[in-house]
Specification:
The protein has about 525 residues and is α/β, with parallel strands linked by helices. Helices cover about 40% and strands about 10% of the residues. The strands form 3 sheets. The protein has an 8-stranded parallel beta sheet. It folds into 2 domains: about 325 residues, TIM Barrel; about 110 residues, no CATH class.
Length: about 525
């Protein structure tokens, strides 16, 4: 349905201007903010049959509304789900949007490709920058483009972990994706900063390699650093280093749109307006030169390029030149490895090297069937012939399932991953689950009081989410009741009534609880 402007040459993106992420908590403030040309709304939070009145009023005023998807998982091993694509297309039609956006990420793994239960991350997880993953992603993008009535733009994500055996830098990966599919890019400069702090990746090098002509718009957001890890919270003011990356991007191109994201701990309307004005000061013609000059002054040899600092150093880029000033996009040399990254980039040893492999061979998650000979020693039946892409998908599926199982089900870490970083990601995923469940089921924290968070984190340690956060809330409450908790009889009675109202049945009796406990013990063995 969607016809890009030719592979490798996206059609000229529509001018959007200055925007902000629309959220129900700040709907009134967004309507009153001066100079708002457009808003972005989380696609999955919109009911097409009943649009929020605030969005209707904004649209009637001529404010563009762009749906931003978070659950497609276009970077996963499976082909995009037709139902999810149809939902995105429906939101585009209802909102009369000029484009739709999603993330270069996977959000679930397992299922038929691995003969294991499907796992949900409840979070955007990074795709390995390998040839295998790029082949799968390109096919998934083409499927999505054919199903959507408007152009698709994809966002680079923030990550805490790095895949072993990566073959491309982020800029090379995105450039080749655009060249092969014609997809547009949603460049998140806050995510570039996050990956600089957490993974040692130089944002100036990524910008130099990006095909800036494919940029649909730019995200700007805040975060916070804790114990050397940058958390992309969207709940803090935009820091100076993020604005500096935006200035570097502006020195290379005039982005069609720039948007402020804020998802939690919302400030006053005046503070939001001030943040928007700071962003406009960076990108507005005639006003950005001074900001760019200031940013470039901080990127010279004397700048402090330690992770989390304002400067990133003056780093050579492929094709000559230096990231201390405006550059044209460097050639996208195929097959480059992490080991051949530009010497001197933060966190990249000059003698680093990576084995020439497509993907690690991950362990099968504990408690799942292992492909191979059948019980009794008889060899398994030969699998049917598959295409090269299907074989590639299976390899990617196994790798993603092993990683996600380690993150949400307590299985061993796949070989090659940094165990410390994985532990940080595990805690971050569990904390996010606890926060989102508290939002979709606010009665649970009220019933459990201060015991809610530790109880939920203990529950999440070995119980992956299934079928979304509302189902997760019900599963959590059921597990507590199965264990005879909470100990306070009044709280337990309130939790029982809450569960009954939503699950439509009575909590399991003692005999059922014993059977389930025995079955769970067998699975753990």
């Amino acid at each position: 349905m969607n016809a890009p402007g030719g592979l490798g040459q996206p059609a000229h993106p529509r001018r959007l201007g200055s925007g902000i992420g629309w959220r129900p908590e700040i709907a009134d403030a967004v309507e009153q903010l001066p100079g708002i040309d457009w808003v972005e709304v989380v696609a999955e939070n919109i009911c097409t049959g009943h649009l929020p009145p605030s969005l209707v009023r904004l649209r009637e005023r001529g404010v563009t509304v762009v749906p931003h998807g978070v659950s497609l998982g276009i970077g996963g091993a499976d082909r995009p789900d037709p139902g999810r694509l149809a939902d995105l297309a429906e939101r585009v039609e209802v909102l009369r949007s000029p484009l739709v956006t999603e993330h270069i990420a996977f959000v679930r793994a397992g299922g038929p490709l691995t003969a294991t239960p499907q796992l949900e991350a409840g979070h955007l997880l990074p795709v390995p920058r390998t040839r295998d993953a790029l082949d799968v992603l390109c096919e998934n993008v083409r499927i999505a483009q054919d199903s959507l009535p408007v152009p698709l733009a994809l966002e680079n994500i923030a990550a805490l972990v790095r895949w072993p055996g990566e073959e491309l830098t982020e800029g090379q990966f995105l450039a080749e994706l655009v060249e092969r599919t014609g997809v547009r890019l949603l460049v998140d400069v806050a995510n570039l900063h996050t990956n600089h702090v957490n993974r040692g990746e130089n944002p100036l090098k990524a910008l130099a390699e990006l095909p800036v002509e494919a940029i649909a718009y730019v995200h700007v957001a805040g975060g916070v650093e804790r114990d050397g890890v940058w958390h992309d919270t969207h709940a803090h003011p935009v820091p100076r280093p993020v604005l500096d990356i935006l200035a570097e991007l502006r020195s290379r191109t005039d982005p069609p749109g720039v948007l402020l994201e804020r998802d939690d701990d919302f400030p006053t309307a005046e503070e939001l307006a001030a943040e928007l004005e700071a962003i406009r000061a960076v990108v507005a013609p005639g006003r950005q030169e001074a900001v760019v000059a200031g940013a470039q002054g901080r990127t010279g040899r004397d700048a402090d390029d330690r992770p989390g600092r304002v400067g990133w150093g003056s780093v050579p880029v492929p094709g000559g030149g230096s990231t201390a000033g405006p550059l044209t996009r460097a050639p996208s040399a195929g097959g480059a490895t992490v080991g051949s990254a530009v010497p001197g980039s933060p966190g990249t040893p000059e003698d680093a090297s990576v084995p020439d492999v497509a993907l690690p061979a991950p362990p099968v998650p504990r408690g799942h069937a292992t492909p191979g000979p059948q019980s009794g020693g008889a060899p398994a039946a030969a699998p049917p012939a598959t295409s090269r892409c299907d074989t590639t998908r299976e390899r990617l599926a196994l790798a993603q399932a092993a990683l996600l199982s380690a993150l949400v089900a307590g299985t061993p870490a796949p070989e090659g991953f940094d165990p410390r970083r994985l532990r940080v990601q595990v805690r971050a995923l569990a904390a996010k689950r606890a926060e989102v469940v508290a939002k979709v089921a606010p009665e649970l924290p009220r019933i459990l009081g201060s015991g809610y968070r530790p109880a939920f984190l203990a529950y999440a340690r070995s119980r992956p989410m299934r079928d979304g956060y509302r189902r997760d809330a019900l599963d959590f409450a059921e597990q507590l009741l199965l264990a005879g908790r909470p100990e306070d009889p009044v709280a337990r009675r309130r939790l029982t009534h809450w569960w009954q109202d939503r699950a439509g049945s009575r909590p399991p009796g003692r005999s059922v609880r014993l059977v389930r406990a025995a079955r769970a013990a067998l699975v753990r063995r």
